[in-house]
Model the fold of this input.
Amino acid sequence: MRFVIDILKRGYMAMLKISAVKVETGHLSHTSIYGAIQNGLFIRPVSIGPRSVAWPENEVKAICDARIAGATEEQIRQLVNRLHAKRAELLKTIEGGLYD
Done:
């Protein structure tokens, strides 16, 4: 139960479906989003069901903010890597909390 409380303390985290991601990022198609993922310029989606994925809103916003600030493609790739690493850390925290 502690891990649930820890996650809730971090604040509400919305998940965006692909249509909302396109609006937020300016991508015009699913293909352009998945192309950016392949090139390391956008975060991978998260499975939210057997046939459904979404993107954490805070991660989408971080990438948009970096682009607005003028980040280079290499800086965006580094940001994407950091965001994926944070996901892995969160999973470890949750898994650790499952056995407390």
User: Anything to note?
Assistant: The chain is about 65% helix and 10% strand. Residues 3 and 48 are 19 Å apart (CA to CA).
